[in-house]
């Protein structure tokens, strides 16, 4: 049977090895993405902007239809609808301003 000090030492070595392996895996992933996906860009997809418009400007029923496009789990739909209810408490003018900011960010990302 190993002493507690030896167990701690073995655990520390295993933890260090796991940490180094994860760091190496992350580096390999990033290099692979850089080499294989160099054509990728930051364009906002139309579905995301449609969902944002629906969140800020449209009634809850339209927002729910937009959410279903992403095929989320039921608890995610319920959480998103709670957020929508809080957003709807804001004055419409403020919600329109927030949507305009999202559109401006999209146009900057897509240019």
Automatic annotation (TrEMBL):
<keyword id="KW-1015">Disulfide bond</keyword>
<keyword id="KW-0593">Phospholipase A2 inhibitor</keyword>
<dbReference type="GO" id="GO:0007165">
    <property type="term" value="P:signal transduction"/>
</dbReference>
<dbReference type="GO" id="GO:0019834">
    <property type="term" value="F:phospholipase A2 inhibitor activity"/>
</dbReference>
<dbReference type="Pfam" id="PF01099">
    <property type="entry name" value="Uteroglobin"/>
</dbReference>
<comment type="similarity">
    <text>Belongs to the secretoglobin family. Lipophilin subfamily.</text>
</comment>
<dbReference type="GO" id="GO:0005615">
    <property type="term" value="C:extracellular space"/>
</dbReference>
<keyword id="KW-0964">Secreted</keyword>
<dbReference type="InterPro" id="IPR000329">
    <property type="entry name" value="Uteroglobin"/>
</dbReference>
<protein>
    <recommendedName>
        <fullName>Uteroglobin</fullName>
    </recommendedName>
</protein>
<dbReference type="InterPro" id="IPR035960">
    <property type="entry name" value="Secretoglobin_sf"/>
</dbReference>
<keyword id="KW-0732">Signal</keyword>
<dbReference type="InterPro" id="IPR016126">
    <property type="entry name" value="Secretoglobin"/>
</dbReference>
């Amino acid at each position: 049977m190993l002493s507690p000090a030896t167990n701690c030492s073995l655990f520390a070595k295993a933890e260090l090895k796991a940490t180094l392996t994860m760091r190496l895996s992350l580096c390999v992933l990033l290099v692979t993405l850089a080499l294989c996906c160099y054509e990728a860009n930051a364009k906002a997809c139309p579905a995301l902007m449609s969902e944002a418009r629906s969140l800020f400007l449209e009634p809850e029923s339209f927002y729910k239809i937009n959410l279903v496009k992403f095929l989320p789990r039921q608890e995610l739909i319920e959480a998103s609808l709670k957020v929508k209810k809080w957003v709807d408490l804001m004055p419409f003018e403020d919600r329109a301003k927030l949507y305009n900011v999202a559109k401006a960010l999209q146009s900057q990302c897509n240019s």
